[in-house]
Design goal:
162 residues; 71% helix; mainly alpha
Length: 162
C-alpha cells in the first residue's frame, strides 16, 4: 500500500480497501431513505440516539476510516479537513436533541470521501494543512478571549447590582 503523495491515484480509487471505506461510509451516512423522499441517512444519527456511547462510537468509526484513508498517502491538508469534519460532527452531535437533528444532515464520512476523491482525481487539497491548523487555533483563542471578556463584564455587572 502506498504511503506517499506520489501514490498511483487510479489504483487508490479502484482498490478494494477504498471500496470497503465507501461501503462503510454509505452505511454510516446514507444507507437508509424515507420512502417518497430523496432524504437519506445512515447509522450515524441512529447510533447517536444512545446518549454518550452512540456519539463516541460514530466518532471512533470515523477516525478509523480517516486512519485508513491516510494510508493512501493523502496530504496533511486533507487529513486536517477530515478531522475537522469529524470534530464538527462529534461536538455538535453531543448536544442533546440539536445534535441528533444535526446528525441527520451533516454527513462527515461522506464529506471525507469527497475530500479523498477530490485529492486523487483533481489534485485538490494539497499541502500540509498547517495554515488551517493555525487559523483554527487563532479562532479558538479569539472565541475563548471573547467568552472570558464577556464573563468578566457579566461578573462586574452582577457585582454592581449588590
Amino acid at each position: 500500500m502506498n504511503h506517499g503523495a506520489s501514490a498511483d491515484k487510479s489504483h487508490a480509487l479502484n482498490d478494494s480497501t477504498f471500496r470497503w471505506i465507501e461501503s462503510i461510509t454509505r452505511l454510516m451516512d446514507t444507507r437508509f431513505s424515507i420512502p417518497g423522499t430523496s432524504f437519506r441517512f445512515g447509522l450515524d444519527p441512529i447510533l447517536n440516539l444512545v446518549p454518550f456511547a452512540g456519539n463516541g462510537i460514530t466518532v471512533i468509526i470515523s477516525f478509523l476510516l480517516v486512519i485508513l484513508m491516510y494510508r493512501y498517502g493523502v496530504s496533511g491538508k486533507v487529513i486536517v479537513k477530515m478531522v475537522g469534519n469529524i470534530a464538527i460532527d462529534g461536538l455538535v452531535g453531543a448536544i442533546p436533541v440539536l445534535g441528533n437533528l444535526f446528525d441527520f444532515y451533516f454527513k462527515s464520512n461522506t464529506r471525507n470521501i469527497k475530500l479523498l476523491k477530490d485529492h486523487y482525481q483533481e489534485g485538490r487539497h494539497q499541502g500540509s494543512g498547517l495554515g488551517i491548523i493555525l487559523t483554527a487555533i487563532i479562532i479558538i483563542f479569539a472565541v475563548l478571549g471573547l467568552i472570558i471578556y464577556g464573563g468578566i463584564l457579566l461578573l462586574n455587572y452582577l457585582i454592581g447590582l449588590f
